[in-house]
Amino acid sequence: MSANASLPDLMYLNGFGNEHETEALAGALPIGRFSPQRVNYGLYAEQFSSTAFTAPRASNRRSWLYRIRPSVMQGDYEPYVGNHGQLCTGPLAGPVAPNMLRWDPLPIPATDVDFVDGLTTIVTCGDAMAQGGMGIHLYAANQSMGNRFFYCADGEWLLIPQQGALLLRTECGRLLLQPGDIGVIPRGMKFAIDLPAGPVRGYVCENYGAPLILPERGPVGANGFANDRDFQYPVAAYEDVEGDFELLCKFAGNLYRAPIGHSPLDVVAWTGNSAPYKYELARFNVMGSVSYDHPDPSIYTVLTSPSDTAGVANVDFVIFPPRWMVAENTFRPPWYHRNVMSEYMGLIEGIYDAKEEGFLPGGSSLHNSMSPHGPEAAVFDKASNAELVPDRYQNTLAFMLESRYVMQPTPWALATELRQKDYINCWNGLEKKFTGRDQGAR
Ligand SMILES: O=C(O)Cc1cc(O)ccc1O
Ligand SMILES: [Fe+2]
């Protein structure tokens, strides 16, 4: 068991996008073929395709699942209306104002709410039906899903816990996520989320586009940033239980439910490269300036969903982890900035260096395409006058979801009391300092 006695100590398979194979019962995996006439143990073979059959080999993702019942063993879907939050899908209707926006964290619900019912969408971009863009959901929940199972046909889910542990029970096995970890669940994979250590809060990026991959390293070489070996996949674990259960799904922007007479997490063995995985953000190997200037934040990219244009992401997932700051004769916080890419930010822990006030763990900010942003006034003054000794940034873990597509706040996001209507005032006090005199700064 791990340090917290209520948390399971799970085994994992290491390696990003590897052709993994795992069996919960010895001999359950066919050898030398995927679909033998009869599968051992009376299992059914089912292929799970996450990319088109004909996607190039380097980007092709699929797995073979050997399961107690094939996935067709379920009832018809009917609309599901239980969602306690407000789950939305891009594109949303109406105009998008370019205002800079910021929100306080969601409260933990006062009534019983599980993970799926506790989702509230804050922004979306692109178009789920066209398989581009993403939705960003906040979650706050206090109940395990138990025998309510879910899958999302609209996109891959990147889970970013901010508070509390998530036990992901998936078709491929179990993953434990704690704050500081991230988890990725392929589009369409069935799962349930239990809460082994109390209430939870965090963020979900529903990636409508190409599956997340590791970014190129370029001249950095063969190691560094997020290393492939640190991505962890589950070992096969199956549930052989029957009952009056519920299969929920999100499809083409709406939630549905179907009755199901058994746990769909009944995969006894699987092999392939499309499976859920986790990554501990503390393992990120941070690159940074050891001479001068604040580099572009792309050096902190953990995962990227490419678009059809090289270097222009559908979604980049970027973190700002603890690290040393040593740059000389440099304004060390992020510079003032206008960006063609749209930037959503969240905070997992501590304080973010550009915003020491008002950007809280569990909170959010949105700086849309070409909307100006940068350090608040107090940070500008502090950083302009700081003694530039080596400084270790500790107790900090912010992240950014960046996209080529304009991000549209949901009606909830604009109306909620959690929105800080005075956010723009954080830049008050950046008065004119221009004197017209040469002050000798170089
Ligand atoms: O705070 C932000 O807006 C994110 C960000 C961080 C950084 O280090 C450089 C540019 C940038 O947009
Ligand atoms: Fe920015």
From TrEMBL:
Residues 11-281 form the Homogentisate 1,2-dioxygenase N-terminal domain. This is Homogentisate 1,2-dioxygenase. One of its GO terms (biological process) is L-phenylalanine catabolic process. Fe cation binds at residues 337, 343, 373. GO terms for molecular function: homogentisate 1,2-dioxygenase activity; metal ion binding. Homogentisate binds at residues 352, 373. It comes from Kineobactrum sediminis. Belongs to the homogentisate dioxygenase family. Its cofactor is Fe cation. Its EC number is 1.13.11.5. The keyword Oxidoreductase applies. Keywords: Dioxygenase, Iron, Metal-binding, Oxidoreductase, Phenylalanine catabolism, Tyrosine catabolism. The active site is at residue 294. NCBIfam families: hmgA (TIGR01015). Residues 283-434 form the Homogentisate 1,2-dioxygenase C-terminal domain.
